[in-house]
Amino acid sequence: MLAKLKSWAQGLGAETASAPPPGPSELAVATALLLAEAATLVGDLELFGMTGTSKQSLAPEHRVAIMEMLWEVVYADGQAHYFEASLARRVAGLLHVPDRDAGAARKRVLARLEQKTDPA
After folding, report:
1. Residues 50 and 12 sit within 8 Å (Cβ to Cβ)
2. What CA–CA distance (Å, rounded) separates 71 from 1?
3. Please, are residues 33 and 50 in contact by the beta-carbon 8 Å criterion?
4. What are phi and psi of 111, to 5 degrees?
5. What's the farthest any 2 CA atoms get from each other in the chain?
6. CB neighbours of 17 closer than 8 A, spacing ≥ 6?
């Protein structure tokens, strides 16, 4: 299964500029692959192809939403490990999400996590 996903992801980077724009299902898959990368940290999926598809096809607020989802995966175990945080920062850059917006997305995720764990 992972081999099939890797093969598909590598094909994304090979698309030409004249290719038709991706449909919603392709964007969803590209986003899912980014989130899977954050969860597994395999490290050898092609981030450029996945982020390129999203960057070209999504409005800035949707790219920020992807960052928020990515931070949710990073903090799924309650802490951000170095490699996970590094991946999130790389993805933010590849998606052309400004540092301020990526940081705000991270803070929203942390605030939601605090609300879930706060007994009051």
Report:
1. yes
2. 25
3. yes
4. -65, -40
5. 55
6. none
Q: Render 37-54 in DSSP notation, one character per residue.
A: HHHH----S-HHHHHHHH
Give the span between the Cα atoms of 61 and 59, in whole angstroms.
6
Q: Mean pLDDT for the chain?
A: 77
Query: For residue 93, how many other CB atoms are within 10 A of its CB?
Result: 13
CA triple 11-13-16, angle to 5 deg: 95
> Is the Cα torsion angle 67, 86, 110, 71 positive or negative in sign?
positive
The kind and range of the H/E element at 55 are helix 47-57
- 0.70 exceeded by the pTM? no
User: CA end-to-end span of the chain, whole Å?
Assistant: 43
CB atoms < 10 A from the CB of 35, how many?
17
For 89-108, what is each residue's pLDDT tens digit?
988 998 999 999 999 999 99
